[in-house]
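queue> holo job accepted (uracil)
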Amino acid sequence: PAPVFDTPVPVDDLDALHAAVRGCRACPLWQPATQAVPGEGPLDSRIVFVGEQPGDEEDLRGRPFTGPAGRLFDQALLEAGLDRASAYVTNAVKHFKFEPRGKRRLHKRANAAEQKACSGWLHRELELVRPERVVCLGATAATALLGSGFPLLRERGRWHRNSDGMPVLATVHPSWVLRQPAADYESAYRSLVEDLKRVVVALR
Ligand code: URA
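queue> job finished
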């Protein structure tokens, strides 16, 4: 069975934490992956964005949100008036989980044990950065911070408090926007930008 972090991860600066993430063997996902992808961004970030897990390109580059979903995310941030360079961007799960399909690697959602095995890293990132606000991108991040029953589509775009009292807003995942049929794409994208604008208002 996968070991689970039930005590705080004992590292006290971001570089040490990122190094520890890269060496993580707490669940089997490290093995087929190229590398772990820790979060990145300034220690004094006022906001933390939490995605699901690295995708194919992030797995190769070792940096979060640098593939197609990342490009959409960057564009949405820009339109909302947010600066990615001054935010901390991370994922709920630090290794890419995939199914080989010919030459491609198809994204697979991490299961509950894998998500739980990884949760100590996210909590330690939040303890170190101590942001004013956290934004969950998609259901996996929302589950990690707001609980498994969180009704994302009903409660997206509103501020909630997690068990530590941290204000957390959940919105849709940029990959979900990319998967929308052409007729729905624009409104899906707009809704993501609108949710991100609430972050701008909250940080004023
Ligand atoms: N999707 C995510 O959730 N995170 C990434 O880093 C890339 C794609």
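queue> DSSP finds eight helices and seven strands in the chain.
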